[in-house]
Design brief:
- With about 220 residues, this protein is an alpha+beta fold.
- About 55% of the residues lie in helices and about 15% in strands.
- It has one domain: Glutaredoxin (3-Layer(aba) Sandwich), CATH 3.40.30.
- It comes from Sphingomonas adhaesiva.
């Protein structure tokens, strides 16, 4: 008997810590289904900080600029992130103190989607930033992530150098904003049920099992 299919669209960014934490929770929730459903993950772009310069921006400066957060607030936010990451086994030991432009990373992810390899590339990109502290706007880092994911590095380099899929990424971002998605991560179950924010493994498992009941 074939397991029922569930599609999980994940609107997220690369340098968003809650996106990394949320993905880990999704994978653990899916594992808890123990084969009761065939869950397909599809990643979609929503840049938190489009147009950052090549050297990026310090996280503390970004929080102060966007939210008026002072040093104490920034430290408290960092503590919450580290605690949530540790609980789910997400390696953030090398997390950079800077944010970087992620448009090219999203172009590479779109390409990976055309060959059924988004998940390994997404995880490789997150590891490059959070575990290794690398600049994910740097083409060499992006091609390295493609290599980590087992993808063709010559093709990855060509995608980046030739500006491929720029229009697709812009169109996808506009679509999701038009659907009211303004924060990441946002999960959408089978195009019908939106789940905002990084949720617990338990809540995600319940949502997936309810979807199986509704199907």
């Amino acid at each position: 008997m074939t397991a029922p299919a569930i599609r999980l669209d994940i609107v997220s960014d690369i340098v968003c810590p809650w996106c990394a934490i949320g993905l880990a929770a999704v994978e653990q929730a899916v594992a808890r289904l123990d084969g009761a459903a065939e869950v397909t993950l599809a990643f979609h772009p929503l840049e938190l900080n489009p147009g950052l310069p090549p050297e990026g921006e310090k996280i503390a400066d970004n929080l102060a600029r966007k939210y008026g957060a002072g040093p104490d607030q920034a430290r408290a936010a960092g503590d919450r992130i580290r605690a949530a990451a540790a609980e789910l086994g997400v390696d953030m030991r090398g997390r950079s103190d800077r944010l970087y432009d992620t448009f090219d990373a999203h172009r590479l992810l779109h390409w990976a989607g055309t060959i059924g390899a988004q998940l390994p590339l997404k995880k490789a990109l997150l590891a490059r930033y959070f575990a290794k502290g690398q600049n994910v706007s740097d083409p060499d880092v992006l091609v390295g992530a493609a290599a980590d994911a087992g993808l063709d590095t010559d093709e990855a380099h060509a995608v980046l150098a030739e500006g491929r899929f720029a229009g697709d990424v812009r169109a996808a971002e506009n679509y999701w904003r038009g659907e009211g998605v303004l924060s990441v991560p946002t999960l959408v179950l089978d195009g019908r049920y939106a789940i905002p924010g990084a949720q617990s493994v338990e809540r995600l498992e319940r949502a997936l099992r309810r979807r199986l009941t509704d199907a």
